[in-house]
Amino acid sequence: MYAIIATGGKQYKVAEGDIIKVEKLDVEVGSEVTFDQVIAVSDDSLKVGADVANATVTASVLEQGRGKKVIVYKYKRKTGYHKKNGHRQAYTQVKIDKINA
User: Is 49 helix (H, G, I), strand (E, B) or coil?
Assistant: First the structure.
């Protein structure tokens, strides 16, 4: 059984027991979070739309962190323009506990 959920502007295909990294959520480590934007649920057949209107996915928060550094380098030739920036994206690592469909 799997579900497709939407959070942080992205979509994730999850099953019970999966550990995923999502965009940063404002919750504490060890607490539970409920994803109510469920796009599809599949157990033996795929359910979408009104069939999954009340479906939810519950997960427990394992970690809050920041990803690897990504270097953003801007350069324009013949003008001496160089600009170097670094960025580390914040994430929340969650473990999928239950798919309520």
Answer: helix
How far is the C-alpha of 78 from the C-alpha of 101, rounded, in Å?
Answer: 60
Q: Classify 65 as helix, strand or coil.
A: strand
Given phi > 0 = left and psi -120 to 50 = alpha, else beta, which region is 78? left
Q: Which amino acid is at 16?
A: E
In tens digits, the chain (101 residues) has pLDDT values of: 999 999 999 999 999 999 999 999 999 999 999 999 999 999 889 999 999 999 999 999 999 999 999 999 999 999 999 999 999 999 999 999 999 98
Neighbouring CB atoms inside 10 A of 14's CB total: 22
Contact 58, 27 (CB under 8 A): no
**Cβ neighbours around 54 below 10 Å, total:** 10
